């Protein structure tokens, strides 16, 4: 089962008012295990950046002008999302913005099964806060790198939250935070395999046990 946890950053709250996507971040899961495959793009919205939005994600007009417009990244994004179940926090917001961008290009909207982790959290913890920050705190997930919202970082953190919401992540699947330049990427920390061979004391105890057996079927 292939799933993609994703997030967007935008210039505002309403695509119908001309607001645009400025960042997309995606994390791939296969059978609920992070594969390490990610999709991340900053996008030139071709419009001004309101100060309120910049305060949230820290992306300025000057920075975004150096990056491609949505039309230039649309095909790669569609390819990455293709065939996957999609997971997002407040999914209607992110899907709505992406579909508005696709509509501007006369492309088909996203057609996929979508899981909204806000709804998932509210079903599991009725009456409790369901923001991403609240869920990170609830599950004890390190959010120290989240000084501002960022699509890739938030998708990586949401992947951990999602695994907790559906039953709990295994210790081996905890993602370690690694800083790379201006972007913080979360990747799995590899661990050596556990030993499976019996120890010398275990082998000796087994031999004593075998010797104590009478009329063992393999001796007849």
Protein described:
- The chain is α/β, with parallel strands linked by helices and 220 residues long.
- Helices cover 36% and strands 22% of the residues.
- The protein has eight helices and seven strands; from the N terminus they run βββαααβαβαααββα.
- About 8% of the residues have low confidence.
Topology (SSEs and partners):
Elements: E1 2-10, E2 21-30, E3 33-42, H1 51-57, H2 61-64, H3 70-81, E4 85-88, H4 91-104, E5 114-116, H5 117-124, H6 132-138, H7 151-165, E6 175-180, E7 183-188, H8 200-212
Helix pairs in contact: 5-7
Characteristic key phrases:
36% helix, 8 helices, Nucleotidyltransferase, domain 5, 220 residues, alpha/beta, two-stranded antiparallel ribbon, 7 strands, single chain
Query: What is the helix content?
Result: 25-40%
Spatial order of the strands forming the largest sheet? 3-2-1-4-5
| The CATH homologous superfamily | Ribonuclease H-like superfamily/Ribonuclease H
Give me the secondary-structure category: alpha/beta
Could you name the CATH topology?
Nucleotidyltransferase, domain 5
Number of separate helices? 8
Please tell me the CATH architecture by its name.
2-Layer Sandwich
Radius of gyration: 23 Å
What is the C-level CATH assignment?
Answer: Alpha Beta
Order of helices and strands: EEEHHHEHEHHHEEH
């Amino acid at each position: 089962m292939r799933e993609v946890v994703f997030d967007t950053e935008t210039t505002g709250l309403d695509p119908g008012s001309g607001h645009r996507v400025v960042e997309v971040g995606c994390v791939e899961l296969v059978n609920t295990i992070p594969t390490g495959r990610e999709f991340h793009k900053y996008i030139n919205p071709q419009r001004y950046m309101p100060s309120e939005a910049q305060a949230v994600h820290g992306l300025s007009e000057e920075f975004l002008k150096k990056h491609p417009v949505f039309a230039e990244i649309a095909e790669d994004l569609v390819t990455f999302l293709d065939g996957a179940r999609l997971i997002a926090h407040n999914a209607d917001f992110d899907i709505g913005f992406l579909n508005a961008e696709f509509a501007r290009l006369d492309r088909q909207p996203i057609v996929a099964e979508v899981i909204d982790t806000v709804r998932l959290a509210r079903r599991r913890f009725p009456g409790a806060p369901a923001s991403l920050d609240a869920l990170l705190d609830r599950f004890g997930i390190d959010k120290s790198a989240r000084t501002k919202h960022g699509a890739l970082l938030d998708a990586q953190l949401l992947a951990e939250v999602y695994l907790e919401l559906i039953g709990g992540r295994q210790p081996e699947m905890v993602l370690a935070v690694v800083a790379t330049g201006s972007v913080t990427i979360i990747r799995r920390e590899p661990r050596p395999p556990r030993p499976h061979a019996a120890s010398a004391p275990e082998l000796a105890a087994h031999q004593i046990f075998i010797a104590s057996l009478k009329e063992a079927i393999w001796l007849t």
